[in-house]
Design brief:
- Chain A: This is Na(+)/H(+) antiporter subunit D.
- The complex is a heterodimer.
- By secondary structure, chain A is mainly α.
- Chain A contains 22 helices and two strands.
- Chain A has a two-stranded antiparallel sheet with strand order 1-2.
- Chain A is globular, with a radius of gyration of 22 Å.
- In chain B, helix 1 packs antiparallel against helix 2.
- The chains are: A mainly alpha, B mainly alpha.
Chain lengths: 496, 112
Amino acid sequence: MSNFLTLPILLPMFIGTILIFFAKKHKLQRVIAGFSALSLLGVAIYLGYIVYTDPSQIITLEIGDWPAPFGIVLVADMFATMMVILSSIVGVVCLFFAFKTIHSDREKFYFYPFYFYLLTGVNGAFLTGDMFNLFVFFEVMLISSYVLIVHGGTGYQLRESFKYVVMNMVASAFFLVALAYLYATTGTLNMADLAERVQVLEQEGILNGIAILFLFVFGAKGALFPLYFWLPKSYYGPPAAISALFGGLLTKVGIYAIIRVFTLIFVHNTEFTHTIILILAGGTMFFGVLGAVSQFDFKRILSYHIISQVGYMVMGLGVYTPLALAGAIYYIAHHIIVKSALFLFAGATQKITGTTELKKMGGLLKTHPWLGWLFFISAMSLAGIPPLSGFFSKFALILAAVQKESYYIVVVALVVGILTLFSMMKIFMYAFWGEPKISQDKVNRKEMFALLRPIIPLVVLTICLGFFAEPIFQYSLGVSEQILDPANYVNAVLGK
Amino acid sequence: MEILIALLIGVLFSVSTYLILTKSLFRVVLGTVLMSHGAHLLILTMGGLGVGSAPLLGEGASSYTDPLPQALILTAIVISFGMTALLLVMTYRTYKVHQTDDLDKLRGRLDE
């Protein structure tokens, strides 16, 4: 039964390998890729369902039947399955958008295989219960992302991808260093076993050092202040479908790892670690949004917004109450959906106008009203206007921070909210209002709807996340209560 | 023995930091290679450098070496090998396209 747990990892891996053989036949590739992405989504939702209805709400699998602290385990709790479902949704949507926008030359050079290998790494990182295995899945994800980000090989892409790769390789080397210290101190790398041993080891100084090292590693991969500098430029280069996938998913894998590690393992001294996390969250939010305000390019503004919103998620962890974490989890769901949608809108706009520079656009609302209003809904959702999904998650985060009396972060979060609204309105006013500046007849009505079709499900989802806030918030609260009580996780894995 | 290796790891890390901060593309690549070597050696040292005993001798063995760090390093070496190969190709292509290996000239303009 629990062998089902391997499917979200194995399915994309096999599909990716099969697709290599059909590299030159791009029509066939599309059919295979489309069907398998949809079945991956089905698998993810079914996995989410069986975990949710399971009495303990955690399903584990000991790979190769090696008992838990010695072998590798896969653990599907509610947080992990939620992330797998979200990654599959984004995977499907970006893939169908790629069918419409990716040049066939790129398709022939192994675009789809790496797309699926990326999903393999992402799903594996969510489901694993072993620190070293987490490293391995991170690397699977990263090496596919290196290929996808430089895919096409334009001068800009090569130049910026080099910095992205070097930054991530340094972070990966420090990941190994942190793992070595952790293994030397505790003698284990199984997360559940670590959670137990860290509590009984009276080695606070060393453990604090290791915790900060992990924070550095995941912070570099998740674009936390002050390690976010690589993100805006490198996400600008690749085509919109890839930017959307990266913007929606990749940094969130880093954030997932931070939340997992700092709720399960390093909770021995929350005064110290979680205060640092809260300060970093404030810096991330504030400097990210300042970057967005200063830019005049569609994709660049969105890239800087990724940074500022990563700050909100980490803020939930820094405040560290059930309500705050529930807000952070709700925010992750909201962010992955809305951010991917916005990047895809940027891609659609680029297809119409041939540019992403806002000052060269204008009047799109007249010529493409559907695009304009759907973008408007997503932008309002991102800025946190009720009744859309962004409002409820930010409300929970700020309410939790007020209850905890961390007023500084509340002020930062509110100011950042206003600046977010300002920069989203900047896009809307420059690109959609005013007189049309460039001839916009490159895309006719029918093609326009073909472009919008993959994005519409995401917009509908963000509206649903807002209008059905009550059940979704209850779910997030369930997730946050589960991850705040490491005993559940430990018992499920070690079978006590 | 551990102290000697620890010093070696320190040297590797400092040299690699210097190389990564230089302006030449290829030196940066060499820097990342040395840094991963340092990290691998660190894993080995952290497991304890037992001399003269085999990793696994059954349950009744009187002395053995911890096999886990070796397994971890093997995996990590393979990964860093793949990464380095990819990075070298990327470096070469970047050099071909931009006709320079000076990172100062690869900064990009402010307005793009």
